[in-house]
Each structure stands twice: as C-alpha cells, then as structure tokens.
Amino acid sequence: MTSLRKRLGTIATTSLIVLSVSSALATPAWASPFVDIPSGHWVETSGVLDEALTEGIINGSTNENGNRIFRPDDSITRVEVASMLMNLAGVEDGAYGKVDTTSWADASSNVWYTSVLNWAEETGVLNGSNGYVRPNDKITREEIATMLGNYERTFGDSDAKGDVISLNSYEDGSQVSSWAQETVAWAVESEIMGATANLYPTSNATRAEATKMVVALGNLGEQTDAAPTPEPEPEPTPEIKPEVKPEVKPDDELDGAVDSTPDNSASLGEKVASIALQYEGTPYLYGGENPEEGFDCSGLVMYVYAQLGYDLPHSSSAQRNYFKNAAAEGKGRFVTDEDDLQYGDVVFFSGHVGIYIGNGELFSARKPGVPASTGKLSWFGTMLGGGQLY
Questions:
Q1: pLDDT, tens digit, for every residue of 51-90?
Q2: How many Å apart are CA 304 and CA 356, to the nearest integer?
C-alpha cells in the first residue's frame, strides 16, 4: 500500500465496531463492485471499502453466478488477514511460491494461501503455536492487533508497543490477554481500534472490521483525507534566508568534530532544515540511514543531526525520548503545542518523525514509494511533541 499512516475518525455503526473513521473520509468514488454489500453498510459509506479496493488490499471472491462478493459480516480467518497484509506490503500473488516452505505442520502446498503462509512466516507477521498455524481458524480482534503489530515491527517505524494503562479506559480492557496487552494498547493509541467503550478483544472479527484495521494500519501517520482523494500538491517550501548557508561536509570528510553551536549565520534549527532539504527526492528505504541507499523517517533525522556532530538513535520513539531527556537536562527544548514549534524543530508522531519547515509543514522521509518530501503536519496524525538539541 502506498500510504502507511492515515488517521480515521469515528463512525456510528454496531457496537462491535472497534475502530475509528474520521468525518473527513471521502464518499466512495464508485459503487461497490460486490453484490452482497447491504445498502448503507458502513464499510462502503465510510470509504473503507473504496480505499481497500484502490490499494489492492482486498479482492473478494466470485459466487456461483459469477458475481463478486465480499461477505462483509462473515468472520475472517487467520490466513485471510495474512493475505490482506501481504497485499498491503505490495507482494505479488504467488511471489513466495506454491510449495510449502514453512515449519507449520498444517500448512499445505498448492492451495490458494501457500504463498501467503510462506511470506507470513518469513516476515514474522503470523506466528503459529506448537508447530501449527491454524490458517482457517477464525481470528479475534486481539489476534489481529498482534498480527498488525508484527507487520509494523517488520515494515513500519515503531516497536508497536503501547502503554497498557490506556486499556483501563475501556470497560473490557481487563479482558485483553496478557500476551496481547502491549500490542493492543499500541493499536488503541494508533487509532487502529478502540472507538467505542469496549474493545471486544476475544471476539471474532468480521471481514469488514479486519479490512478497516488493515486500512488504518496502512495509513498510520499519513494524510487524514482518505483515498482515493489524491494528496494536495505541497505549497512551495519556504525560502531560507540568503545568509543561512551552513557548510555541509561530504560523508567522507566528516571528522566527527563539527561545531553544533548556533552561530551568527544560522541557528541550529536553520542548519538542520537546510541540510535536510538537500535530500528532497531521496528514495524511502525502511531502515535506511544514508542518501546513497535511502532513508526512513528516523534515519533521515539521524543522518542530518550526524552532520552536526550528534549521535541519535534510529527509531522515532527512541529519538523522541532522547529529545525529551535532553530538554529535561537543559540540553535542548521540547514542546507539545504546535504553536510553539520553531523552524527546524524535529517533530514526532506515532511511528513518524520529520523536520518542521514552517507554515504548518513537515519535511520527512515519507513512506514506501514516496521520496523524501514536504507534507502538512496534519497529515501525520496527533503531534507527540517536537524540539531541538543545544
């Protein structure tokens, strides 16, 4: 999927809907191709189905009359969720072969999901137990959250672990299994689930609900307008004052002793922004930390600060903690109100980080398939804070 992070708001449906969809979601761009979607069903009216089809997350199946069906309210199976996540990752059907290569005793060759299970075990997205994967078993909401957390740890930019205290705000938060608590808390904090008073963690999820969760995962930290609405063209990047021309040495000339103290020609924030903007257009690469190969979001920030003599960790959450601790020690500033951001501040979101360049805009390594570029702060969800180091 081309988007890895949009926030969805609340939609009024049955009490079993545990995810959030924003009022900004677009009206579906076309009528559902599935003949079994009830008129007015939330999965269509919310735009979730529209986006899932656009991004290739779902395909549905064909009934005896040759019509496409989706079965939105049927329970979904473990391997069907894995298939959605494989589609989200952009893996071509059959890319992992039709011969079973897994360690699971109940996996088979030459069935529709052989390739899916091969991919799911290799990437760690799906875990079995006692040598079995139970591909056709129904899956609970907390199990889906766990699979999505596995996906995030492999393909995203966070450890997919939340504060379990957040579960206390739900009437059935205590029913979340101990092994799933941190990941369910992450899913709640990321607005993948948790829009009602209950989580229903051990209840089986429907195909519509699972689709909604995968769409929300795919859009973590991205634009709040739902697909298929295209991203608006970014406004021109604010011009940097002519006198702000910090010299940036090539990698092979860095001696580790770059003076990071703000001087009369440029504040640290201006230097940070100036350096970062040189890498506009650099390809996104998960785990990437140099312009030759590509950047992920925290890799770009780490690289920019390295040019100024700082050694940052490679993770948006770890960098956020680094900046907060530096501020507490008087070695930096950290703010939580967008109005207090300054040019060149490093800004943090759930699973994302970038550099503030004024006018409500963020420069960052955006997402797979999109090079480093500028976007609105509002595209990336709730701001968790931002600041600079001294």
A1: 888 888 998 888 888 889 999 999 999 999 999 999 988 8
A2: 13
Structure tokens at 330: 């008087």
Q: What is the pLDDT of residues 147-189, one digit of tens each?
A: 999 999 988 878 999 999 999 989 999 999 999 999 999 999 9
pTM of the model: 0.54
248 and 307 Cβ atoms separated by less than 8 Å = yes
Which two three-digit tokens encode residue 241?
Answer: 């004052």
Q: Which fold has domain 251-389?
A: endopeptidase fold (from Nostoc punctiforme) (3.90.1720)
State the sign of the Cα–Cα–Cα–Cα dihedral 16, 19, 24, 29.
negative
A 10 A CB-CB count for 59 gives 14
Rounded CA separation 41/228 (Å): 19
Domain residue ranges in the chain: 5-76+138-222, 251-389
- Name every residue whose Cβ is closer than 8 Å to that of residue 377 and which is 6 or more positions away in sequence: 338, 347, 356, 360, 361, 362, 383
Give the DSSP letter string of 19-36.
S---TTPPPPSS--S-TT
Identity of residue 317: S
